[in-house]
């Protein structure tokens, strides 16, 4: 068998234990642990580091409508069966929440369009000017975000 020093194409290999925990418990040396050092990223040519919000228009997010909530113990949850009724905290007269990525974007009322549920938007949440989204493209992000929201699929109200 050739020694690694004699064969430059062959690397020296260290036998690997099938279970690293056995090595530690047997008193084997621990691997060296050190912090990662990242090089600084370069800024954009404009120097602002901001991206136009339009860059994200084609990114899909899942939008949910929250009808209400309830808190119950795991025992109560496990006792639920077919036909059980779970009473929610929201009144039938309160608007439902329209949510994306756990952030409430708007509120509305549940309606029926054809044979499907839908939500008529009744109020839009105010824009948080301190949010990271606003810093993506500066002061125009709110206007562009509003344009994106109005471009969403809508059903004419009757």
From TrEMBL:
<dbReference type="Pfam" id="PF01052">
    <property type="entry name" value="FliMN_C"/>
</dbReference>
<dbReference type="GO" id="GO:0005886">
    <property type="term" value="C:plasma membrane"/>
</dbReference>
<dbReference type="GO" id="GO:0003774">
    <property type="term" value="F:cytoskeletal motor activity"/>
</dbReference>
<keyword id="KW-0283">Flagellar rotation</keyword>
<feature type="domain" description="Flagellar motor switch protein FliN-like C-terminal">
    <location>
        <begin position="55"/>
        <end position="124"/>
    </location>
</feature>
<feature type="compositionally biased region" description="Low complexity">
    <location>
        <begin position="135"/>
        <end position="158"/>
    </location>
</feature>
<keyword id="KW-0966">Cell projection</keyword>
<dbReference type="InterPro" id="IPR051469">
    <property type="entry name" value="FliN/MopA/SpaO"/>
</dbReference>
<feature type="compositionally biased region" description="Polar residues">
    <location>
        <begin position="1"/>
        <end position="16"/>
    </location>
</feature>
<keyword id="KW-0145">Chemotaxis</keyword>
<dbReference type="InterPro" id="IPR001543">
    <property type="entry name" value="FliN-like_C"/>
</dbReference>
<dbReference type="InterPro" id="IPR001172">
    <property type="entry name" value="FliN_T3SS_HrcQb"/>
</dbReference>
<feature type="region of interest" description="Disordered">
    <location>
        <begin position="129"/>
        <end position="158"/>
    </location>
</feature>
<keyword id="KW-1003">Cell membrane</keyword>
<dbReference type="GO" id="GO:0071973">
    <property type="term" value="P:bacterial-type flagellum-dependent cell motility"/>
</dbReference>
<dbReference type="InterPro" id="IPR036429">
    <property type="entry name" value="SpoA-like_sf"/>
</dbReference>
<keyword id="KW-0282">Flagellum</keyword>
<keyword id="KW-0472">Membrane</keyword>
<feature type="compositionally biased region" description="Polar residues">
    <location>
        <begin position="39"/>
        <end position="48"/>
    </location>
</feature>
<protein>
    <recommendedName>
        <fullName>Flagellar motor switch protein FliN</fullName>
    </recommendedName>
</protein>
<dbReference type="InterPro" id="IPR012826">
    <property type="entry name" value="FliN"/>
</dbReference>
<dbReference type="GO" id="GO:0009425">
    <property type="term" value="C:bacterial-type flagellum basal body"/>
</dbReference>
<comment type="similarity">
    <text>Belongs to the FliN/MopA/SpaO family.</text>
</comment>
<keyword id="KW-0969">Cilium</keyword>
<feature type="region of interest" description="Disordered">
    <location>
        <begin position="1"/>
        <end position="49"/>
    </location>
</feature>
<dbReference type="GO" id="GO:0006935">
    <property type="term" value="P:chemotaxis"/>
</dbReference>
């Amino acid at each position: 068998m050739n020694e690694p020093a004699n064969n430059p194409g062959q690397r020296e290999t260290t036998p690997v234990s099938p279970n690293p925990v056995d090595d530690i418990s047997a008193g084997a040396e621990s691997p060296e642990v050190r912090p990662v050092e990242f090089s600084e990223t370069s800024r954009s040519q404009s120097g602002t580091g901001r991206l136009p919000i339009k860059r994200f228009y084609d990114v899909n997010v899942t939008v949910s409508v929250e009808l209400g909530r309830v808190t119950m113990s795991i025992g109560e949850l496990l006792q639920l069966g077919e036909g059980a009724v779970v009473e929610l905290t929201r009144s039938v007269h309160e608007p439902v929440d329209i949510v994306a990525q756990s952030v409430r974007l708007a509120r509305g009322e549940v309606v029926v369009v054809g044979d499907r549920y839908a939500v008529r938007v009744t109020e839009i949440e105010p824009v948080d000017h301190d949010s990271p989204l606003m810093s993506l493209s500066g002061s125009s992000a709110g206007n562009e975000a509003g344009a994106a929201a109005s471009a969403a699929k809508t059903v004419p109200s009757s």
